[in-house]
Amino acid sequence: MKLCHPEAQKSCSQYSATKDRKIEIVKVAKDATFHTFSEQTQMILILQGSLNLLSKKVYNKNAKAGELILVPMHRNCSMTASKDVTMMVMTLDFNIIFCERMPLELLLETHIKTKEDAGVGLLKSNQKIMDFGDTIIDSIADDDLKCSYYYDLKIREMLFLIWTYYDKKHVFNFFKPIYNNDFSFSSHVYKHLNEVKTVGELAEKLEYSLSGFEKKFRRIFETSPYQWMQEQRAKRIHKEIICTRKTFTVIAKEYDFSSPAHFNDFCKQYFNNTPGGLRKESSGRLSL
Predict the structure, then answer these.
(1) pTM score, two decimals?
(2) What is the tens place of the pLDDT at every residue in 263-279?
(3) Distances (CA, A) of 210 to 66, 80, 101, 226, 244
(4) I need a surface site. Which of 172, 219, 232, 287 has the fewest CB within 10 A?
């Protein structure tokens, strides 16, 4: 089935270039090796074939079709195909939520007894998960669907299915490898981001001194907290402009711009366009 408006998708801000895709279909030939290292946690569903894993505390562990692999952020992991492999690689952000009532952090903090590094997570799949993987392959491969919004929805759906169709013990053991001080720090950063306006306020929320917070933040996020907060703010503003009917005056006020001119300059700096130009472009895409 073909997309109705492929050109509109490619010009959309949600269009995902290859290097930025949160879901990718990867094929590995027999005896070839796939290496993964990401700044974010990755979840891998093996759809066909089998792999031998080599990572910290995991030596020659075999994973076959129908199994899920969880590779924590900043973790080197090599996978050698013992048979031709097709797998779906999903990149997860730090704020992993199964449903509104159960964020991952709550599950781990409730059940964990040790913070010993467990390498990577492994989970035997079931028919619900495999069927779900097939639908995503159809959409990505056949329809050429490359929408970040779609990817986010599907990753959340995958997490919901894991939470719904597995008991807590298996879910806990699968996600346990990512529970460490970096994960807890990152989770709290995302949790409190919308509650603060300055780096100092965010450091206070996490109960760090400003210097200690900045040092740890740079190590984990590989950028300064100020720059990162500005980028996150810009993303929210961009979404407000193209996805809502709010006036620019209202948006500027909500994000504490001192004047319409200041708001205009901000948009030119981050988006190479004025607020009016951004909304006009977005409206043009939707009218196709």
Answers:
(1) 0.62
(2) 999 999 999 999 999 88
(3) 46, 44, 31, 12, 35
(4) 287
Which two three-digit tokens encode residue 155? 């990753």
What are 263's two structure tokens?
Answer: 């708001």
Q: Where is 169: in which H helix or E strand?
A: helix 168-175
Q: Which H or E element spans position 99?
A: strand 97-99
How much is the mean pLDDT over the chain? 80
Residue 176: per-residue pLDDT = 79
If one counts every other C-beta atom within 10 angstroms of the C-beta of residue 177, the result is 24
CATH superfamily for domain 181-286? Homeodomain-like (1.10.10.60)
Which backbone phi and psi does 47 adopt, to 5 degrees?
-95, -25
* pLDDT reported for residue 46: 92
Q: In 3D, which of 154, 135, 166, 138 has the Cα closest to residue 92?
A: 154
Nearest residue to 25 (alpha-carbon basis) of 139, 131, 129, 148: 139
- Cα separation, 256 vs 16, whole angstroms: 30
Residue 74 pLDDT greater than 80, yes or no:
no
Q: Taking residues 214-234, what's their average pLDDT?
A: 90
Q: What backbone phi and psi angles, to 5 degrees, belong to 50? A: -150, 155
